[in-house]
Specification:
Low-confidence stretches: 1-19
Number of helices: 5
Mean pLDDT: 83
CATH topology of the largest domain: Immunoglobulin-like
Order of helices and strands: EEEEEEEEEEEEEHEHHHEEEEEEEEHEE
Distance between the termini: 37 Å
Number of domains: 4
CATH class of the largest domain: Mainly Beta
Helix content: 10-25%
Structural class: alpha/beta
Largest sheet: 8 strands, mixed
């Protein structure tokens, strides 16, 4: 039902007589109520009324923003395979922002549109409380949404609209849904009442991420090399001009060319070529959460272009601010969903997701006794308020450079003592 298991969508059902077309429908938000500024479930239902197998593409589009503050598009493309008479229902994480237009859903086959639906947005500002199981009394303190235990998602992204999840007595929650609840609660999503509550780890702060960006920026040209190269260039130029003015042998010009070529070769060899984009990935895991990690990806573009990253990411938008990357698309590849964003120079983007927990390996540290590399500062600052002396922290750093892209990955796993 969730996008995590979706490589190729397939649903098999018994054909029903009288159907003759493909139908599509759905809603945005839990029970059709979307929370503003949060990642909401986008639920889509597709019915194949044809007598043949439906091999098509599911396409979703929505205009985000407004004319005065800038408008963009968020899109989704996924393969769809449905047997004759088949019916399938899917739920995707879908950010809902102010000024957004209704969501358009299209099923197309070989470029031909087979079905289309427009899903309206019914917005709510206050995050509701989810009550799972038999509702004896409505909870005080805000709106409520009643869910059956089987309605709980296996993807913590889809719990984002809730401020709190209350499990009533006797509510049998599946193991995958319980893991999603644990991840959502542990990484600051909300409260879980009458269930196991993990230690809450604060999110990575914007100030710490800004310091990390400054630390990983392109290195400035070394002054010594620049001054030395300039002096050699002027000396070579001085030797080259007199022979040229007398139409003599151009040994000076040859020396000038050699100096310039040597400088252009040695600079990128020892100090690196100017990079077009810098990406910082911070992955935070906890022993209390067995399946998921909390990942933050910072994209710092130096040049304009399109950036594609593996996984389903959404932009992190602090309260009271607006999205910086207006165009975003989620598409399926051979290895699952991929996120495609438009990178604009001077516009740092911060994306986040629930990734796969990092449960083994790395360098072992004991909190309070061993210093950790400064690159892990945003992660250490997040676990700092809850970590105690004697706790274990495992770290791993990966640095890659391909062409004009510099990528740094920092992983940290916190294991409380005892």
């Amino acid at each position: 039902m969730t996008w995590l298991a979706w490589t190729v969508l397939c649903a098999v059902a018994v054909a029903q007589p009288g159907w003759a077309e493909v139908q599509v429908g759905g809603e945005v938000g839990w029970q059709g109520q979307a929370v503003l500024g949060e990642v909401n479930p986008l639920t889509i239902t597709v019915t194949n009324g044809k007598s043949s197998v439906l091999s098509a593409t599911l396409r979703v589009e929505q205009r985000v923003g407004s004319g005065w503050r800038g408008a963009g598009m968020q899109r989704l493309r996924a393969p769809l395979l449905l047997a004759p008479g088949g019916r399938a229902r899917f739920a995707f994480p879908w950010p809902v922002e102010a000024g957004s237009a209704p969501v358009t859903v299209v099923v197309e086959e070989d470029g031909t549109e087979l079905a289309r639906a427009t899903l309206p947005l019914r917005l709510m500002v206050e995050k509701p409380i989810a009550t799972v199981g038999s509702v004896v009394a409505y909870p005080a303190g805000g709106p409520m949404i009643a869910l059956a235990p089987e309605d709980l998602p296996e993807d913590p992204f889809l719990l984002s609209p809730f401020s709190e999840v209350r499990l009533t007595r006797g509510a049998a929650v599946s193991a995958p849904a319980a893991e999603a609840l644990a991840a959502w609660a542990a990484f600051g999503g909300g409260l879980v009442r009458d269930g196991e509550t993990p230690t809450v780890i604060p999110s990575l702060s914007a100030a710490d991420l800004a310091d990390a960006v400054a630390r990983h920026g392109p290195r400035p040209p070394p002054r010594g090399l620049l001054i030395g190269g300039t002096v050699l260039y002027l000396i070579a130029l001085g030797f080259a001009l007199p022979p040229l003015s007398r139409r003599g042998r151009p040994w000076g010009m040859a020396a000038l060319i050699s100096v310039v070529l040597a400088f252009s070769l040695f600079y990128p060899l020892f100090f690196g070529s100017p990079q077009a984009i810098t990406m910082l990935l911070y992955s935070l895991s906890s022993r209390d959460v067995s399946r998921f990690s909390y990942d933050t990806l910072v994209i710092v573009p130096i040049r304009e272009g399109i950036q594609e990253v593996s996984g389903w990411w959404v932009e992190r938008v602090p309260p009271g601010t607006e999205r910086s990357g207006m165009d975003i698309e989620w598409a399926w590849g051979p290895d699952g969903p991929r996120t495609i964003v438009a990178a604009n120079p001077g516009q740092t983007m911060i994306l986040w997701r629930y990734g796969r927990a990092w449960a083994a390996g790395g360098t072992r540290h004991v909190v309070g006794s061993v210093a950790v590399d400064a690159g892990f500062a945003p992660l250490l600052a997040a676990v700092g308020p809850v970590a105690r002396a004697g706790d274990l922290v495992y770290t791993e750093r990966i640095a890659e450079r391909q062409g004009g892209a510099a990528r740094y990955e920092y992983r940290l796993r916190w294991e409380p003592d005892g």
